[in-house]
């Protein structure tokens, strides 16, 4: 820390997208986000001019801003080859392409100053089948889940503006033992250890995650992710 502020990364790109018809009947999506020049206004529900195709599972205050680490792109190119979708930020539908931070070194509840905004990490991403179609790989969503290179979401505590090149300043880290990767590991490996699940419930979870962990603890059963990962019929 220097003067109480730890500069941990920077914004490589800011991206927004419009909801348009997608690859399967009746589905719309805004996953194909594009970089924005200049500064972008950010409010409680996310970036100005950004849309979500399915507001049941995307958007809202707890998923206002989606972040993805630019560091992962090299690993994906090594594994998948030089796919055109990996040639520029936005392959994973992220609003902020970030450098210097990944799921392994950012934690649930972290508060960041980015530009004139204050963001708080709310949850990891649960990848869905839309990535399979975007990458033309039937197991792409499962690959994100298995590698824990999922990305994560922030809520907006203070409105403001963000632009490419802005530094990420860590203001607070109340739960340093719970990086996003550890949380996603509990969800996806999968974990049925009662002590671990009870520790997760002590965190400030979003309602959906709290319900999921409570149900798993009570039932002793792990969730079936197939519908999310594979999607509806083509």
Automatic annotation (TrEMBL):
Q: Which residues form a coiled coil?
A: none
Q: Source organism's superkingdom?
A: Bacteria
The UniProt entry, under Gene3D superfamilies, shows:
PK beta-barrel domain-like (2.40.33.20)
SUPFAM superfamilies from the UniProt entry: PK beta-barrel domain-like
Name the Gene Ontology molecular function terms of this record: catalytic activity; molybdenum ion binding; pyridoxal phosphate binding
- Name the InterPro entries on file: Benzoxazolinone_Detox_Enz (IPR052353), MoCF_Sase_C (IPR005302), Pyrv_Knase-like_insert_dom_sf (IPR011037), Tri_helical_YiiM-like (IPR005163)
Residues annotated as transmembrane: none
Q: What is the name listed in the Swiss-Prot or TrEMBL entry for this protein?
A: Molybdenum cofactor sulfurase
